[in-house]
Amino acid sequence: MSFFKIKVPFGLILWGIFNNHCKMPHFPKLLVVKIGSNVLTNPEGKPDLARMESIARQVAELKAKGIKIVLVSSGAVAFGRKEIQLHEKTEAVLKKQIWASVGQVELIHTYKTLFAQHHLAVSQILVTKEDFRDRRHYLNMRNCILGLLQQGIIPIVNENDTVAITELMFTDNDELASLTSSMINADSLVILSNVDGIYEGPPSEPNSKLIPIIGSRLEDIGQFISPVKSSFGRGGMLTKSSMARKAADLGIRVWIANGKRDNILLDIWEEKAPSTFFEPKSSKHSPKKWLAHGDQYFKGEVTVNDGARLALFSEKISSLLPVGIIQVKGEFSKGDIILILDEKGKKLGLGKAEYASSLIQERIGLKNQKPFIHYDYLYLIQNA
Asked: What does pTM read for this prediction?
């Protein structure tokens, strides 16, 4: 079980909440639901079919209200572990690949059976990090998911653990859920875990209070979160909080809630469920949503001078010009994602390169050149 240890007064959190006059929203139009491994498994790590049946019923009820829903579901390895017994000496990565390969079939078959009881069809989409790097591939994937939704089909997204290797793996499915929400311009994201949300102390302690709302103006609280990971998942509350905040910064409403609670999805919209809600900022354009997660996928780096840094963060809309660049690292092509740093090495933002690395190297510091990163394809990190 993961939790977060608050080292600042709870009143400060409340100031961040109520100073923004946050109001809880009602039903969404396009919803992504992330279902964690600890939700789909029992304490022994075996699939919890009763819980899956409950979630399928709730999703069906939400769809009946006209809500389009995408599931980001863990659980393949747990299903595979149930089906196949492997020798203890089997190499760890190979063991996971085998379980994921076998288990994904069982996982999607179970979902298909459960949703068929509600006369709903499902589809399977397996992805790796590489699928999000290329803008064209990214858009093709988005169009596929939106096409499925238009046909009333429930897309079920999961990481392709069979082929993913360490450097191409998502932190966990929380990251994948945040990426998917951004990609399809979802207005809401629910992250189902095995706790009610984010606490000001260990959830197991009676005096620990659940934080109901985290305001958009509140500064980063990652330093107060315990890095402890969950029993069967790959990530912990630190990842969930980080991905929830990133999605909220892009204008997506996010809840972290307990998927083990009966009727949790329906109760969230009725404002009856305990949870932590992340207040969203204003929505960003689609290219900027793609770039917001690019800190995991960038192909090169550029360092800019103080003049360029000030221009980028001024109220005037500004693109990044070669005249403001003082250093370029890495080999990249036009269209690749680039990390932008200041002279002290601090991350300022991400953007889509308009030049290949060989060409921008020739134009470093030159005036009267077309933008290296156009404003429309520039994402700036807040508080940078």
From this structure: 0.81
